[in-house]
Amino acid sequence: MHVIVTVLFSLFFIPAVGVHVYGLFAPITQESTASHIIHIVSYSVCFFTFLRAIKYRLLLYALAAVYPFMFHANCFFTPLVQQNKFNAVCLLVIVMLPLGGLWIYKYDRH
After folding, report:
1. For residue 103, which of 36, 58, 69, 70 has the smallest C-alpha distance?
2. 6/37 Cα distance (integer angstroms)
3. How far apart are CA 94 and CA 105, in angstroms?
4. Minimal CA–CA distance to 70: which of 40, 90, 84?
5. What is the pTM of this model?
6. Is the pLDDT of residue 53 over 90?
7. pLDDT band at residue 110, thresholds of 50, 70 and 90?
């Protein structure tokens, strides 16, 4: 089960980092360069702490997940409420980041 979850989250974090690296060089949205850099660092820290059993990893994961979670929650709920537009990518992020934290919490307890 651990291998399946690791593969699943790798398939989430690696493209997430890749999209924001690409966004630095070829703007695909109106997101700022600083926001792309913060996303890259945040997702990288989340992925690292997800893969490695380091001291305080749940805390580090949670701190790193705050910015991308809030950013994508905003980009999901604002257009949904104001324009009735659904953004699947933002929904994926706001679901997967807490799931990663729950997995770390569960895995560290056993």
Report:
1. 58
2. 24
3. 17
4. 90
5. 0.92
6. no
7. low
The tokens 């926001």 sit on which residue? 35
pLDDT digits (tens, 9 = 90+) for 78-87: 999 999 999 9
Up-side HSE of residue 93: CA atoms within 13 Å toward CB?
A: 26
Euclidean distance between CA atoms 38 and 29, whole angstroms:
15
Q: How far, in Å, CA of 78 to CA of 83, rounded?
A: 8
The residues, ordered by sequence, that sit 6+ positions from 7 with a Cβ below 8 Å of its Cβ are: none
Number of neighbouring beta carbons within 10 Å of residue 59? 11
Supply the pLDDT for residue 88: 97
Q: CB count, 10 Å around CB of 60?
A: 16
Is the Cβ–Cβ distance between 94 and 72 less than 8 Å?
A: yes
Two structure tokens written together for 33: 């360069």
Q: Which amino acid is at 103?
A: W
